[in-house]
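Make up an example, fold above all:
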Amino acid sequence: MGKHQPALLGGLFIGVLSSLPLINVANCCCLWVISGGVLVTYLQQQAKPTPVETGDAVIGGLIAGVIGAVIFCVAMVAMQGLGGAVMQENMRKALEQNSQVPPEMRENIMRWMSGPNIGLIIAAVTLPIYAIVAMLGSLLGLAFFRKKTPPPAAPMQG
């Protein structure tokens, strides 16, 4: 198994499960992101006879989080393209029902919620959150899966 293959698999796990309708509901508490980080550490440890270094787990978790966030963002932008008109109409109705929102603010919100802007907003929020949470998940995985180092051998008396 290559050095970054666990991170790629963990990122794929995060991105796919976070993007699937209905299954993504469990990601409300970042369940899939944390699980992806734990998966990275598990796979790293299975590939090594020695304990996984903390730095390797952290880097793997960060990479997995970024990969998962990119997959999630691409999927969300694609879904926005498919159902974006309905979402924009619902947003417009909600803004019109709220009399406390000034008209200029409504226009700005609607402009940001259309086209490629929504992809930028999703990426700006998702990338750092997924990277940090997946890294924390990989540290959690260390607590579960890190192999114990054998005690040092007693010196030979002779």
The two ends are 43 Å apart (CA to CA). The longest helix spans residues 54-97. The chain is about 70% helix and 0% strand.
